[in-house]
Specification:
The chain has 477 residues and is α/β, with parallel strands linked by helices. The chain is built from 18 helices and 18 strands.
């Protein structure tokens, strides 16, 4: 079963968010299921530099200029096609924006090219390998199903929505540059309120649509979370499903993680206390085993509910807890967290930025990981927290609802509690969740039982890979 995944980033070659973790882990999980998986990526410098045994496949004249399609392998031996086009991808800033956080004006060309090249691969431009399934991820690859449809569907398409809120919207006058049939720019196509929507294209033209949790699949079909596409998604309910993301245990596991201060496991938890002490020391917090340490690892955006965390910090510190944050994003939010740390340095510590290694250390050293999102398609942070025994404090939404069991009395009695879950997106509701965490912390025997249940919960990639495998089979692959 030959499957080509198409996405904008892939761990460990390039990562700006959870999408890279998924695209890095899923091909590896599919390999034991007799899936011959390759990945198509843009030629960002770190991606090109991270491949070995690179060879040229073809030189292509495209609507975005001449490009070279190359093939190489990752350190995990995953085959990767890369669009080598320095004039498109070798730039400062991040993959999507310049150094001033402005989207590149030619992003429509830079990412449409993923769909155009994926279709050439499906048509057999590589004479040694041709996919039966092309699996596109998020808006960056949203035009993959459209280009395949325009070419007569040389392969079946799967489109996965990782976050419906980011849709790849571009002005209508750029459509002509994409070399798609004129009638594709229509209500029954990729036209969206007079503009181009890469996300809508993926939803409309794909043979199958998935998203990253069962609950989110239901939520995006409603006006509240459908981002204007709920009507289209309702018409495609018969091909829409939710498949929960997993955790790559080769990267995220406290028993084998070389990035943390001490290893530990569900049955041998002593190393967890050492990791907490190390985190307190490096962040300048008071060394205190008796105080619960709350943590946030996140982009600082309103969607993630971080303004609610700011509003409830005193609820944590007044009760004797500690708080550590790693993240970046909204400038005003960054400044507010930095100011909170300056006002109370023994209880609050903040590191602005992105640091993959330090995120592991926070998971290992914290007692509670906070994910109070307005919406959350799947969420990987709470899955990492479960694996590392940092109990998730989450809102009952999307994948958070599917993965965390609240520490209610009934769930405690049944031995299935793994964290704390609150309902409304408000300061008051989050405060109630914090209070439940402190109530559980005051009962050490119950806390240990919940921590161990959390760590035993299996959210590895095998289950998701099996579901994707079955989906590919249903398409005749």
């Amino acid at each position: 079963m030959r499957v080509l995944h198409v996405c904008a980033e892939m761990f460990p070659l390039l990562k700006t968010g959870g999408l890279a973790d998924v695209s890095g882990a899923l091909p590896l999980a599919l390999a034991p299921l007799a899936c011959d998986v390759r990945v198509l990526l843009p030629g960002f410098p770190s991606i090109v530099a991270g491949l070995t045994a690179v060879s040229d496949v073809a030189t292509l004249e495209t609507f975005a200029g001449k490009v070279c399609l190359k093939f190489g392998r990752t350190q995990d031996d995953i085959g990767v096609y890369v669009i080598d086009a320095p004039h498109l991808y070798a730039r400062g800033g991040n993959p999507y924006q310049d150094g001033n956080h402005h989207p590149y004006p030619d992003n429509h060309l830079r990412f449409a090219l993923l769909g155009w090249v994926a279709t050439r691969i499906a048509e057999g431009i590589d004479t040694y390998w041709r996919p039966a399934i092309v699996h596109a991820h998020d808006w960056h690859a949203g035009l993959v199903p459209a280009y395949l449809a325009a070419a007569g569907r040389p392969a079946k398409s799967v489109f996965t929505i990782h976050n419906l809120a980011y849709q790849g919207i571009f002005p209508a006058n750029q459509f002509a540059q994409l070399e798609l049939p004129a009638h594709f720019f229509a209500l029954n196509g990729l036209e969206f309120h007079g503009q181009i929507s890469f996300m809508k294209a993926g939803i409309y033209y794909a043979d199958r649509i998935t998203t990253v949790s069962p609950t989110y699949a239901q939520e995006i079909s409603t006006p509240e979370q459908g981002c204007g596409l709920d009507g289209l998604l309702r018409t495609r309910q018969d091909v829409l499903s939710g498949i929960l993301n997993g955790v790559d245990e080769a990267v995220w596991h406290p028993a084998s993680d070389a990035l943390i201060a001490a290893s530990y496991s569900v049955d041998k938890l002593a190393g967890k206390a050492k990791c907490k002490a190390a985190l307190q020391a490096v962040m300048g917090l008071e060394h205190a085993t008796e105080k619960p340490l709350f943590a946030v690892v996140s982009r600082l955006t309103e969607q993630k509910g971080l303004h609610l965390v700011l509003a409830t910090l005193n609820e944590i510190t007044d009760r004797g807890g500690q708080f550590v944050l790693l993240g970046s994003g909204d400038a005003a939010m960054e400044a507010a967290f930095v100011a909170a740390a300056a006002d109370n340095p023994l209880q609050v510590a903040v590191k602005i930025g992105y640091d993959e290694a330090f995120s592991h250390q926070i998971m290992a050293g914290s007692d509670v990981i906070m994910v109070p999102s307005r919406f959350e398609p799947c969420g990987l942070t709470q899955l990492y927290g479960l694996k590392y025994g940092a109990l998730p404090l989450v809102r009952r939404v999307g994948g958070l609802s599917d993965t965390v069991m609240d520490c209610s009395l009934e769930n405690l009695q049944d031995g299935i509690a793994t964290g704390a879950v609150f309902n409304g997106f408000s300061k008051e509701e989050l405060t109630q969740g914090i209070r439940r965490i402190f109530a559980l912390w005051a009962r050490p025997k119950d806390w240990k039982a919940v921590r161990q249940e959390a760590m035993r919960t299996d959210f590895g990639w095998h289950s998701a890979a099996m579901q994707y495998h079955d989906l590919y089979r249903s398409l005749g692959a």
